[in-house]
Amino acid sequence: KARKNMNQKYTYKEAITHLGGLQTKCYLTGTPINLETDSYCLDHILPVSKGGTNELNNMGITIPSANAAKSDLQLEEFFNLCKLILENNGYTVTK
To answer: Who has greater pLDDT, 78 or 12?
Structure first.
């Protein structure tokens, strides 16, 4: 199966603007990220394995541990997994 937009190219300025500037936050955890000094990852919000593309509107900036935890899950799958983990450890989760 051919991958859609896998060779998509963006300018540095387009990417920085999309990400919210050099001082931004992880879209999953809200952790502040300084693009000049901190480690970060770009996450496919809808994973490529599930039909996502490399369009900028499908890319979110994350801290490395959040990106690794999400892996190739869709957002709802990831949120449900986090909820199960928290509830299994005695936390109450409400939306």
So the answer is: 78
